[in-house]
């Protein structure tokens, strides 16, 4: 019996899903919710309300109203209802010339306190808000690749637990930072551990523990937990109006990860692939007992037959993905899909403040709209597969972005198309996680998910900066998001379908895994079968 067959025979005793897997999955899902809360925290803590220039003669009080009489005498209008947020008339000139504002009054309708109000992330200081979000995502990017590789080397559990502790520290610290540049430093580490570490390791732990028949549902539960975090961000933001208390509440959600070191088990697949057969068998035996099975496994029976094979598994690393042609093409294609999905997913999530309506309701809807999508996706993935849903939803999401931008502007129609686009890309983003875990071998699975997450975070880092391009053309940022999504959605069709396939273990398995299977070759085979 070779190494892969021995491992699968052990997991066959455990079954695809039982009480033990449910207990472990519940622990993993907490990391998805906390990651979402941390990643979207600046949507409320750093929110930029509607604003206008402060006029000394009208706004003598610090708590002046946003709308006051005779405002049109001091501030020009950019349309019939909107005052210019960045310029006011130069009252010492006679030609109605304007000068930039040097202080602002903010609309308190939705936000009474935020980092943007404190540090004036508006007008010629907009870059400061974009930089804060980008630095968080840069930390997530660095964390994704470094912690992903570390999880393959040192174990999923260790990286998960350390990241959980550190995201608690930096999440709380972010609430008390008084100075902008120090805030950026905290944001970097907050992103690295709050977004990347526990989330990616937790997802891999889930995929490596759950059997093939339940892997789709459990993977999508992970993303549903992430969506629940978005709803919590909106809910807390609507209730708590003090930025410091709000950030403290967000950061303290990581307390729920502190006890995982004692309650959560290491991945048996990782232990097996790294030659720790006895430890892997012991964990599976524990799972068998919790699941009510009477099967007793003998570790010694597996150690002698698998140790020699495992010596070759220990040397695998992320660079092996680029040494052979099949894995190299797949890695680049998958990374582009992660990049594109993230670009639209977070571009829409982080841009909810620009949509028509109550920002808390819209942010909540951004989370809620994902749930029906995941139910549909479970049905589709179990019957159609992974490849087609990813491609279809990415292309649909891109098309809806274009409709929201060019057919409807600043009205309810735009918000509806944004929600449809978010619904679509949420589905494709959820499937790409499962798909990546199934497509690549165990020895580099966490690394390649880390690489995918790095690609995702790279685009997330660029989103706030791309958003600044609206000063050149209002439609340009969304057009960029849409076109990249559509192109990547088409390229996904060149990847293989993994529905019903066993996970590859070694790099060699990965290179020969479903080779020459694309959407186009599958269609050709189907046509030949119909003809015959």
TrEMBL record:
It is a multi-pass membrane protein. It holds the Pfam family Sugar_tr. The keyword Glycoprotein does not apply. The keyword Transport does not apply. It comes from the Eukaryota. It is found in: Membrane. Keywords: Membrane, Transmembrane, Transmembrane helix. The chain crosses the membrane at residues 127-147, 159-177, 183-205, 217-239, 245-263, 331-348, 360-381, 388-408, 414-436, 448-468, 474-495. One of its GO terms (molecular function) is transmembrane transporter activity. One of its GO terms (cellular component) is membrane. Its main location: membrane. Residues 65-500 form the Major facilitator superfamily (MFS) profile domain. InterPro entries: MFS_dom, MFS_sugar_transport-like, MFS_trans_sf. This is Major facilitator superfamily (MFS) profile domain-containing protein. It comes from Aquatica leii.
């Amino acid at each position: 019996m070779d190494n892969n067959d021995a491992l699968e025979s052990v997991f066959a005793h455990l079954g695809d899903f039982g009480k033990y897997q449910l207990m472990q999955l519940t622990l993993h899902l907490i990391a998805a919710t906390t990651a979402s809360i941390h990643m979207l925290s600046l949507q409320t803590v750093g929110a930029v309300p509607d604003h206008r220039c402060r006029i000394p003669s009208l706004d003598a009080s610090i708590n002046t109203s946003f709308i006051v009489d005779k405002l049109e005498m001091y501030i020009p209008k950019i349309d019939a209802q909107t005052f210019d947020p960045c310029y006011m008339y130069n009252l010492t000139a006679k030609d109605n010339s304007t000068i930039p504002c040097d202080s602002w009054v903010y609309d308190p309708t939705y936000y009474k306190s935020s980092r943007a109000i404190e540090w004036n992330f508006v007008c010629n200081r907009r870059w400061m808000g974009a930089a804060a979000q980008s630095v968080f995502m840069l930390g997530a990017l660095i964390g994704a690749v470094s912690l992903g590789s570390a999880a393959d080397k040192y174990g999923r559990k260790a990286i998960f637990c350390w990241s959980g502790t550190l995201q608690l520290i930096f999440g709380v610290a972010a609430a008390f930072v008084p100075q902008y540049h120090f805030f950026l430093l905290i944001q970097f580490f907050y992103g690295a551990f709050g977004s990347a570490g526990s989330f990616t390791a937790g997802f891999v732990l889930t995929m490596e523990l759950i059997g093939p028949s339940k892997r789709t549902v459990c993977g999508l539960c992970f993303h549903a937990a992430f969506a629940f975090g978005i709803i919590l961000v909106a809910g807390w933001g609507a209730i708590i109006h003090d930025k410091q208390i709000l950030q403290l509440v967000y950061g303290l959600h990581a307390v729920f990860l502190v006890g995982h070191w004692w309650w959560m088990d290491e991945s048996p697949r990782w232990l097996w692939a790294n030659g720790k057969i006895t430890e892997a068998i012991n964990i599976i035996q524990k799972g068998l007992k919790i699941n009510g099975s009477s099967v007793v496994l003998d570790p010694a029976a597996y150690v002698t037959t698998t140790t020699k094979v495992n010596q070759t598994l220990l040397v695998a690393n992320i660079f092996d993905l680029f040494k052979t042609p099949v894995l190299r093409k797949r890695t680049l294609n998958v990374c582009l899909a992660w990049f594109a999905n993230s670009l639209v997913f977070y571009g829409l999530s982080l841009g909810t403040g620009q949509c028509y309506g109550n920002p808390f309701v819209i942010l909540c809807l951004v989370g809620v709209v994902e749930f029906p999508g995941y139910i549909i996706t479970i049905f589709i993935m179990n019957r159609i597969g992974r490849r087609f849903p990813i491609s279809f939803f990415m292309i649909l999401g891109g098309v809806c972005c274009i409709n929201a931008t060019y057919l409807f502007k600043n009205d309810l129609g735009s918000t509806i198309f944004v929600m449809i686009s978010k619904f679509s890309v949420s589905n494709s983003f959820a499937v790409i996680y499962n798909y990546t875990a199934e497509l690549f071998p165990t020895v580099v699975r966490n690394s390649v998910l880390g690489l995918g997450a790095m690609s995702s975070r790279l685009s997330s880092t660029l989103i706030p900066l791309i958003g600044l391009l609206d000063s050149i053309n209002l439609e340009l940022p969304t057009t960029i998001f849409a076109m990249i999504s559509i192109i990547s959605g088409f390229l996904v069709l060149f990847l293989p379908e993994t529905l019903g396939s066993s996970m590859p273990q070694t790099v060699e398995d990965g290179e020969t895994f479903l080779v020459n299977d694309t959407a186009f070759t599958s269609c050709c085979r189907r046509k030949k079968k119909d003809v015959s």
